[in-house]
Every structure is written in C-alpha cells, then in structure tokens.
Amino acid sequence: MMTSESEAHTRGPYAKSAGVRQRILEAGMQAFAEAGYYATSLNDIADRAGISRRGLGHHFKSKEELLTVVLDQRQDEDAEFIRNTSGIDSLAAVLAVSTHNTERPGLIQLYSLLRADATAAEHPAHEHHRLQYDGLRLYLARAFDEVRAAGELNSDEDSGTLASTFLALMDGLQIQWLYNRASTDIDRVLRAYMRSVVPSFPQAADARPLVATSLT
C-alpha cells in the first residue's frame, strides 16, 4: 500500500520523538541505577540523553513521572517472559525472568538500589515495589498450590512461605551477583532451591518460547 506524502511527513517527526523519549528512558535508568532517585537530577539525565533540560521537559514533566515510566517499562519487559500457564511452568517462568535480567546489569542495579531506597512510604517508587512484591508473592503462591495439588511438592510449608523464601533468595542473589558475577550463578542456585521443594522441576532452562501475561 502506498504511503501519502502527508503521512510520511507526520510519521518522521513522530518516530524521531519516540527515539528521543527512549533515549531519555535509557539515560534515566542508568542514572537512577548509579545514584538512586534522590541524588539524580533531570539535568543529569538530560546530559546523558544528549538533549537540553527543556527538551527533556517536553517528554517528562517531573523526575517522579520519569521514574514511574522507567519502572513500568521494565515491568512490561519482564511480562514477556511470564507464561500464562500453571504449576511448574509458572515457577520456571519467574526463574527465566531472573536469569534473563542478568543480560542487562543496569536493571538489576536499578532495582537493587531502588528497593532499598523505596522502603520509605514517601518515596515515589514505594507503591510500585509494594504492589510488585504482592503480585509476585501471589503468583508464586498460586503456582506452589497447583504443584501441591498435583502431588509434586516436597514441603510441608505453606505456599505463601515458599513464595516469600524464593523472592528473598532471588533478591539476595542479585545483590551478590552485582558484587561478583563470576562466582554467583543465579540460575543454578534458584534452580537448586526449586528442585529441593519440587523434585520434578527442570534441571536446565526450558527452551520453549514464553507467552506474556501479567503477574497480578
């Protein structure tokens, strides 16, 4: 189908604007990951993105808005790796997200720093992280319930405790990985934990494609 001259003219500036917006988001992610929310300024982010402070303001009106979009975008990316399945497949999908994130160290650094800072209720990312933990805990607990119902769970602990234990282990391993990536194999340790409570859990990552769904 032919594209009219007016459509092409409109699409050009839009594509350029979208590219600038993405540069700002990447710059924001890097800045927040290195210095945290409070020590990062919009001027810092504008410099990293290679635009003026005024230019940044055309896309984001405040630092809080920018942080919110950075976190939402990361959550959307993670959702691509969460299967719309049940039981062991759901547990494997969460493990796949954690392993995939090691390909983008800045994301792990960002979340490790912000999760500590955002424990204060007034932090702009506090509610985001609270809801994310609640959603993940519920998602994992449901998966453990399904594994238990199938007779494949090797634990007397309640599913909520198993879910919280996995999340604590995952967060702790990510911090250790930031300190020493060579000696911290996140996938191996998380898989060992899963196999200790679910003996039939896969010993190696499943190569089948993952289908996107929501954690909440």
UniProtKB/TrEMBL annotation:
<keyword id="KW-0805">Transcription regulation</keyword>
<dbReference type="Pfam" id="PF13977">
    <property type="entry name" value="TetR_C_6"/>
</dbReference>
<dbReference type="InterPro" id="IPR039538">
    <property type="entry name" value="BetI_C"/>
</dbReference>
<feature type="DNA-binding region" description="H-T-H motif">
    <location>
        <begin position="41"/>
        <end position="60"/>
    </location>
</feature>
<keyword id="KW-0678">Repressor</keyword>
<protein>
    <submittedName>
        <fullName>TetR/AcrR family transcriptional regulator</fullName>
    </submittedName>
</protein>
<dbReference type="Pfam" id="PF00440">
    <property type="entry name" value="TetR_N"/>
</dbReference>
<dbReference type="InterPro" id="IPR036271">
    <property type="entry name" value="Tet_transcr_reg_TetR-rel_C_sf"/>
</dbReference>
<feature type="domain" description="HTH tetR-type">
    <location>
        <begin position="18"/>
        <end position="78"/>
    </location>
</feature>
<keyword id="KW-0238">DNA-binding</keyword>
<dbReference type="GO" id="GO:0003677">
    <property type="term" value="F:DNA binding"/>
</dbReference>
<dbReference type="InterPro" id="IPR009057">
    <property type="entry name" value="Homeodomain-like_sf"/>
</dbReference>
<keyword id="KW-0804">Transcription</keyword>
<dbReference type="InterPro" id="IPR001647">
    <property type="entry name" value="HTH_TetR"/>
</dbReference>
